[in-house]
Design a protein that fits this description.
Four copies of one chain form a homotetramer.
Chain A (H helix, E strand, L loop, with lengths): L3 E2 L1 E4 L3 H12 L4 E4 L8 H4 L3 E2 L10 H10 L2 H12 L10 E5 L2 H16 L5 E4 H7 L9 E5 L3 E2 L2 H14 L3 E3 L4 E7 L2 E7 L3 E4 L2 E3 L5 H7 L7 E11 L8 E3 L4 E5 L3 E5 L3 E2 L8 H14 L7 E12 L6 E4 L6 E5 L5 H16 L32
Parallel strand pairs in A: 1-12, 2-3, 2-13, 3-9, 5-15, 13-21
Antiparallel strand pairs in A: 4-8, 5-7, 6-7, 10-11, 11-12, 14-17, 14-18, 14-19, 15-16, 16-17, 20-21
Chain lengths: 384, 384, 384, 384
């Protein structure tokens, strides 16, 4: 129980697993500790959208981080398939963000302008053009932003593929291993105390989503993260109901392999309760049927929920701590955990190797940045 | 494979299992053949209402059969618990059939009158009286018929308890045993051919729901039965949301053990498709929230469906065949299979023992009765 | 979040749920906090044996506590069924503890003697007598102790029934509510801090199994509890394979409703890992087939495991704390949690009402008793 | 219900789905009818071995058919992923067929000789060479045949991918559609009668595994197929326990994505019962632990079974009928259904297009070939 690792990673979700994979790929000896099962929380509840353009409507560091991370997926998909046998289901068939009011249309036109200025493809399609691409969509749609670069992956598969690929590369994966506190020695973190015993390592990475905050607070570090519960459901059809990902009013639709369609998501702030409610499902169902009437005939599959880890300014915490040595935090990715997992893994591995982080925009994710008093949900004005 | 039974029963749903139980309890040597798993079809999809009064709004043979069958449950529950260990969850906390329009109110007042005339308790409650009993119900409710004698059981448990109690009493239960045809000898049935081989018996009972028709047709017997698919879902809460069974507009609510509430049911005629549709669930959810607004906060559990076996005049086929000897049919119970299973089992066992059926009303269920050309759903005018 | 309760109970397993039920039944206003789902851990993994005589081979306080608790079940079963609708599956068809060696036989004869001395029924049956009762058992069995008073319940149902009955009686049940620390004020506990906020109460009861230790340790209280993982599996047959509970060499067999048979259990000390291993199942299967050869033809159902909370002297901690006021501990019940849940609930409710505990034997469960340095498993010499 | 198809395919397993895919890819209008769910029977129970060399120890038509079909997988995997989004998990990491006795060794050396003569790679590895490749394997292994060309796919995914790709290409997929008889007109088949109604088509393909025989028998065609039940289980580990597929004494091991390992399979002839037995699992577990001791520590996942469709001479029926026009049979693929599905689909599509089948070896699969009186299991002398 006292074996020494190059890095101990706390949290077996998509962020922690990506960090384990990236570190193991660079030859580091890592332990990945998960208190229940790998990917058992928010990571496997996600719809897996890679919405670098669709989810972010203004320039800034989150946009930079997102599009850089998105560009890492094609190579990653191949490598993870080779190592773990798991296909992460990467699809890049574009994303349509639809408008049903003039206000939404104007907002999208503004977003298109900013994204083109940033060098990304983004186009406005009229209602008829939208329905030519996706004949099942509602006649009420006035038009849509088409972001061809956005896509999606299978979130549970991505999370597991990172962890299993890390295991193949030598990482020590420990499930049912609950961290109770950090081991502090002379202003540095040197290990973690679990229910089974103490593990020592050169570095500790906190990647436990909403669980990260309390563990860090015990060590006197403030990284406040709060949960926003999201409920989803899925339906099945033989031929796909839509080809692109559709981002609409009150719901989004993500087409998965074999005719599966995920519909998400509600946003219940500050709830740690993971129960799916009848009302939540009822609301999503009504919104989905308005957007895509044919979904009413599709086969009901199942409903689930997850807790997205949110921060007061809507940005994740990514970085080493300025006061306490040898600890790195990667948490609070909110709705962007799947999208941001590759770059977060890279950044953490760079830190472990002592490489300086490139890019001024990363300053925005520092742990000691000033946070607003009033929490906000990083939520688009009309999507939900 | 050529062992000789007193009776071979085709169909391991609630009807066939009840018949196996009642025959085994009288010392007969029976085989119960089920092509898949016991209770795997309509029987375990049912909400388990014992709605002798709530489901039937006019006098007649179905009402007679229903209330006689209902009266058998209390003793049956005790006996099945003793033999099989299974509690069938009998609850007799009454049933409220609510009205939200004057038309529905008048129709219910008419039903109350007929039931009182038949010697059953049935009362009209005002909207306020209804909400005093069930505070969670909608303020839109004008009033309700209260039938204190109606109740419910756990449908899957009842079906299994019959079969397992029969096994304890010596019945030979065979799952994955698919009957392909009846063995006919000199104007009588003497066995069944399954995929595994042929079984011989003194009598054969057809209790295979919608599967009964084609098997009988092969033997030249016309017992036309068609499916009406019903979709349901369930929610969970710690304390029950309602105490009584509630029969409303577009849905009914049946409170089960441990705070579970079953909401049913759609009616899709002539569909053999057992898939639950998103639209079906959406419609039920909306109706349930209108009837009982607090259900929106309850935990979503799951959705399922079953195929109810319906006939052209809405009455089951129960009886021996007039031309072909040694064959008995018990099928087409539609929405009343759970309620009618005890008396159907008794009647079939009486037949096997050579006892004459008592009661003129039983004539209505004869196999050779004239059937209307146009099929009908035995459906109440306003409940769905 | 600052509502004041008469008692806050931490842990929604069978012990915490029983305490909530007993307190609510006496009119106290209680909150039951569970970090995941009710009964999700050891309580629903248990086989539900009420082995007051079979599990305990020597006189002492655990025997006293066990037989008193066992006597509470018949009335409890009725009351819980009324309140929650849940049948706890109480069966009192006796327990056979079999011997296959002379040494085991002598040990059992010794146990029989002690139990008779204590006023309990216990008989020695020869091998032939055993097989007359249970014809399926192995011819290798030399004989068995028959304890007619022992029996079993459905463990998951008992745990849920306590909680749901408590909810009906007004208890506030909170799932996904993870307690992070106790609120201490002037030498007394006045509440708990959860991830959602702080709850205040007159009293706090710690009933969180293996999770209790670390929470208490934060408050400076030593109640060391360690896990012993147990793996089980179940099979199905139409008619039951055995009538009595069978306690044999390397496994035990507990017959459940509908022909289900639970086979348990391995004992892996100090493992927090809840994974079922292939080797664990292989060993249990081999032992079960030796004991009851006909089980080989039964249908495989599923396998699972749970973590039993064990203490250094094999006795649970039950009692208020001598130094810190208003806190009560009920944890460490090891393999006897189901059996001891009724009396533990009663004792905690007595404490909350200020009643003095009756019985000197209760001293043995005090929190400040001296504990041996070397941990032991409270394990019979030959059963496992 | 009277729509006319180019072809109606009966049976939604891997064979029927492959035929639907291949026909739809050639522009034919097809209906695929499945009585329950797609891939719900043997196809999703298979371990997915592509054992063209490992399963077949002598030259002949089955070997020819197998290696031709195996060569189709790489391109197929890419095409199915594009169309359906489903990765069929093709792995070609070789297959080791191990020997633990001299007799087995000699038999394998004979097989190697024949396969080399046929132009396939096949090598003998000593025990030490085997353990260098797969360090976890038992020290009792004397040596093994290594067939590098063999591999495996995910059987449920392959079956679904065929059907879903067919749907994308326009095929009409109908689940819960049970065919009751063929429509015969003037010596030709012109459609099928289902429970819902009659469908007409230019051609009918029977691909319903063990269900094919009775349907064909109704039309006077003898294609006797009988079931051989196979039980399997799976375990999980983070890093894979073996890299190659291992074919041993009493079991085989097939490593799947993410550290999953499938262990198969028992062979229970003439059983239509799909229940997994405790004894079947116990035997497989013991064999697997002997072959790969480290499996004992792996996590138990689940057990299942399927019915493999076998014929009297161990060869499938593939071909049009000589007397009855417009009907094609593709059934009885026994343990090779996954492996043979691509070529069977091609052959059926060739037939539908009126192309003559190439290759004399195909004569061996004709429907009117003489069959031995005594049935045999196409079983290797020592593998099971």
């Amino acid at each position: 129980m006292t074996r020494k690792y190059d890095a101990i990673i706390v949290g077996g979700g998509v962020i922690g697993s990506s960090i384990a994979y990236h570190m193991a790929a660079r030859g580091l000896k890592v332990a990945l500790l998960e208190r229940e099962r790998l990917g058992g929380q928010a990571s496997s509840a996600a719809a897996g959208m890679l919405g670098a353009q669709a989810e972010i409507s203004e320039p800034g560091p989150l946009f930079e981080l997102s599009r850089r991370s998105r560009s890492l997926f094609p190579e990653l998909a191949i490598r993870l398939r080779e190592l773990s046998g798991i296909d992460i289901g990467l699809e890049r068939k574009g994303l349509l963000r639809v408008a049903t009011t003039e206000q939404e249309m104007n907002s999208l036109l503004h977003t298109i302008e900013f994204q083109r200025g940033a060098g990304e493809q983004a186009d406005w399609l009229s209602g008829n053009e939208v329905r030519r691409l996706e004949p099942g969509l509602s006649p009420d749609i006035l038009g849509a932003m088409l972001a061809e670069g956005d896509g999606h992956v299978l979130a549970p598969e991505l999370s597991l593929a990172f962890a299993k690929a890390a295991a193949v590369l030598g990482a020590d994966i420990r499930e049912y291993s609950e961290v109770q506190s950090l081991v502090l020695e002379q202003g540095a973190v040197s290990g973690v105390r679990t229910r089974d015993g103490t593990l020592y390592g050169e570095r500790v990475v906190m990647a436990a989503g909403t669980w990260s905050g309390p563990l860090l607070a015990q060590a006197g570090l403030a990284c406040p993260i709060y949960p926003v519960q999201g409920e989803c459901f899925s339906v099945l059809s033989h031929a796909p109901l839509v080809k692109a990902t559709i981002f609409g009013h009150g719901c989004y639709l993500v087409p998965k392999k074999g005719g599966r369609l995920i519909v998400g998501a509600t946003m219940n702030e500050h709830s740690y309760d993971r129960k799916v409610t009848a009302g939540g499902i009822g609301g999503l169902l009504a919104a989905a049927i308005r957007l895509l009437p044919g979904i009413a005939a599709a086969e009901w599959e199942s409903a689930w929920s997850g807790l997205r880890p949110q921060t007061a300014d809507g940005l994740p915490f990514i970085g080493g701590h300025q006061d306490l040595l040898h600890v790195y935090v990667a948490a609070g990715h909110y709705r962007n955990g799947i999208l941001l997992s590759p770059i977060t893994g890279q950044l953490a591995a760079d830190w472990a190797e002592g490489k300086a982080a490139e890019g001024d925009y990363l300053e925005a994710f520092r742990l000691d940045r000033p946070l607003p008093k009033t929490e906000r949900v990083n939520q688009d004005e009309f999507a939900h």
